Amino acid sequence: MEGSVRVRFAPSPTGLLHIGGLRTALYNYLFAKGNNGTFVLRIEDTDQARYVEGAEEDIHRSLKWAGMEVDEGPENPGDVGPYRQSERKDMYEQYAEQLVEQGNAYYAFDTPEELDQMRERLKKSGNPSPKYDAITRMSMKNSLTLPEEEVERKLEEGEEYVIRLKVPRRETIRFEDEVRGFVSFESKGLDDQVLLKSDGMPTYHLANVVDDHLMKISHVIRGEEWLSSTPKHILMYEYFGWEPPKMAHLPLIMSPSGGKLSKRKAETEGIPINTKDYIEQKFEPEALVNFLAYLGWSPGDDSEIHSLEELCDLFSLDRVSKGGAVFDYKKLIWYNEHYLREKPADELWPRVQEIAKEHDLDPDEGYMKQIIPLMKERVSKVEDFVTMGRFFFEDPEEYEDKAVKKWKDNSAELLEAYVEKIEELDGDDFEAKTLKDKIKEVIEEYDVGFGPVMMPLRVAVSGMGYGPDLTPTIELLGKETTIRRINTAIERLG
User: Fold this and answer.
1) Region 148-170: what's the mean pLDDT?
2) Domain Aminoacyl-tRNA synthetase class I anticodon-binding: where (predicted)?
3) What contacts 473, CB < 8 A, 6 or more positions away?
4) Catalytic residue numbers?
5) 263 marked as part of a ligand binding site
6) pLDDT tens-digit series, residues 458-468
7) Which one of 81, 114, 408, 485 is most buried, by most CB atoms within 10 A?
8) Helices (H), 103-187
9) pLDDT (tens digit, 9 = 90+) per residue, 31-56?
């Protein structure tokens, strides 16, 4: 990588950070770290009307939670600040004016009504998507069509205007995309983009180009939805005489049922759409990061499990896929289960304790640290230690319907035989191995399989038809509790 790599994640604070935004941030971060580069956070808040209170805090919190350290941003500025576009407002106007002076942009004085009339007029004459462009600009009210003195007068009197980019009528704009290869656009398909709004605020397009240049951004890595805006940006770089950064447009995230993963689709398919949902649902951040890295990229081998540090070493733009990536929620859960299993009980205990308190339980630390390793193979999320493991603290109040179906006519008889056998055991003998031997004795005496004893026994002690390894579970519950629960089940299920 020649020169120093500088990338930016540039979200707009118009709502909570979407999962697609987090993936864009991740790819920028991985690319920066893998190339000893700098990861910049820039807040694109020029659209004041859509600004959402608390959205910027949500962006900072989400990145921190996912383990992505920001090298330069609003909270730790470097020397190309400020890092919020609203605080850079004064610098954009001079660049828009420069383009007007060069003849690459112009003042437009059209009112919203006049713009609507133009669109209506063109629709009637058979143009399905009318725009303000090389053809229509000549019949509008702007500094290209009005006499010079009238333009001067309008500006002096403070009449409202916008500055528009003067897009050439017949030109092919080509650039190389790091993901897609060469991309070309015909300029006749582009409109004369507004660069400076009537309130003096820049649009995304002007602010983006100026900031990427001033912040010395080497690579622009962003979602595919920005691909169609890129030719306008390339034109501006050309007009300013600046070297454009390398461009890379990431594939869309697709819904399992097809099409783009929209908010509505995500809701119907039970996929959390915002990073905040994953934080609140207590997902393991490493699992989400590992999953998102593979959502549109792969290292080219069969490996699937990688830490953030490893991903930084492995990541490259040429392995990013062009086609959309399907959000497979089951795969995310698979990652979550993996990372939960990797964590020692000491690390999980404080989180489990907090969740237990939310469920009105106050587990003993030593006891809980014995339960955690036992349940690890069965849990998908950290709260399962408490919700699925509640029977470690309380006798089951009811039995799951599915589990009750496994209670057969001979279940009571078999469990009574088992109780007789374990009643004889002393404290020291009440351990998983011996408890399993006693199950085998019942099986041999009654000439049945393991299932007819194990299933009702599990139902009796836990109220469920599934859960952690049974005999170590019974050992943890202890003799008195186990016998009491078996007798209750026999009474209630007959």
Assistant:
1) 97
2) 356-490
3) 374, 392, 461, 462, 467
4) 263
5) yes
6) 999 999 999 99
7) 485
8) 112-124, 148-156
9) 999 999 999 999 999 888 899 999 99
